[in-house]
Structure of TetR/AcrR family transcriptional regulator:
Amino acid sequence: MKEKLREAAIELFERKGFKETSVQEIVEAVGATKGAFYYYYKSKEELLCDICVSYLDDLLRQQEHIIQDVGASCTDKLRAIVYMVISNIRTRKKSARIFFREMRHLADDHLAEIRAKRRVFRKRYEQLIEDGIARGEFKPSLNAEMITFGLLGITNWSYYWFQPDGGVSEEELTDIYVDFILNGIRAQSEKTGAGVGGSPISLK
């Protein structure tokens, strides 16, 4: 029943918004009573927190699996994480929208838990960039923290506009993002490998 309540809430919160959805609407959607709701959740806010935490925990599990692949390069891991976030749009798009849009309604104690998990995800990403710099895969001049925030911004906003069944697939969007991240948009000379103005472009 708890899972049914959570799934019903995801549908309603995504469509109507957290504040506009009542507990009564949630229980009616699954044919339950308010008594059943309050058996599992102390409040509607606690249910929202559960949705956000579940979403983050799933991302953290997938990210950890990628990071721990000792046979993969930092570049390969970077691509895998970008693809993981993009491919999750097909199955977790509503949860992601709720997370980014409705988290502001959570009290400080719930926000503290979520912020701690977000920090873990971000710090793992940042460490990956630092490892890539140390191994010579990425430019030594990079600010790993700022690059990480940029990567998160690029991928997170995809939840608002990307349509997995549209003209661009998850794989193609991942390739576009990773090429943009690693190479930018400046054209390179076929003969010299230089960009506009003759400045060479290096990934090391």
Notes: Residues 1-41 form a domain with the Arc Repressor Mutant, subunit A fold (CATH 1.10.10.60). The first helix runs from residue 2 to 16. The mean pLDDT is 89. The chain has two domains: 1-41, 45-198.
